[in-house]
Specification:
single chain, alpha/beta, 3-stranded parallel beta sheet, two-stranded antiparallel ribbon
């Protein structure tokens, strides 16, 4: 098993979050979602992007990137 982390914020492109999230799960990765600020946000098309509910690390300032094999940074015009 490998570990992945998605770090995102408000107004990310929804599909740049959703597709990698589900593909990584299908591939057998443990996926942590860390949202800047630690609270759910909405993608630019309205999809709610929540931090993991079952994982203690929910805020970007709490993660240790060395704990992961893969880092995903969803982009978009509004998510800088």
């Amino acid at each position: 098993m490998f570990r992945s982390v998605i770090i995102s914020g408000d107004q990310a492109q929804d599909h740049e979050f959703i597709y990698p999230f589900y593909r990584l799960l299908e591939a057998g990765s443990e996926v942590d979602v860390c949202i800047i600020g630690g609270k759910p946000v909405k993608g630019i098309l309205g999809t709610q992007l929540p931090p993991n509910k079952d994982h203690p690390v929910k805020d970007i300032n709490q993660i240790n990137i060395n704990d992961y094999d893969l880092l995903i940074l969803p982009g978009g015009v509004k998510a800088m």
